[in-house]
Specification:
It is a single chain. With 196 residues, the protein is α/β, with parallel strands linked by helices. The chain folds into two domains: 40 residues; 146 residues, Glutaredoxin. It is 39% helix and 19% strand. It contains five helices and six strands, in the order αββαβαβαββα. It has a six-stranded mixed sheet with strand order 1-6-5-2-3-4. The chain is elongated and about 95 Å long.
Length: 196
Amino acid sequence: MSAGQAQKRSGRRHVLVVGSIFLVPLAAAILLYYSAGWRPAVNAHGLLIDPPRTLAVSGVVLTDGRPAPAGLFAGKWSLVLPATVCDERTRALLDELARIRVALGKDESRVRRVLLHAGACSNVEFQSRDADLLVLAATAPGGTDFLAQFPPAVDGAPGIYVVDPHGNLMMSYPASGSARGLLKDMERLLRLSNIG
């Protein structure tokens, strides 16, 4: 065997080794993905509502008494807090949602907070303190039907809900849960989403 053939064989061996370094992990990933049913873990902190429910906006009025428009949730992600009573717990949850919204940084403008109450709240009280808060009252005929679209959270009490920019109810969080989990999920949603 001549020196030229030995060099050729050595060159082929290097190409095969380098090629296998890239191709073997790729082949293993494809094999795992399609044959073993393995999927990467997604650690959502809230409860995914599957399939997402499109909210039918009816029976809801704005702070000035006008009926809410049909496209109320269009264009922005919404963190909705349904409240049967407006007490200090409601105020604390709204403050927590405000901190989450601010913590989103540059994506803050893509998210709004919504207080949905059954008529026992003073719109003026909440609206005067929080200019970015959308206060809705489910007091018009059909308001209880609108409130019924929000399922009970994990602990059975009303929770915090995420509504996408198309008006779909997609996640729920217990009101007693960790705000950090909601923040992490919102960061992930906003990073992966081009809508809203």
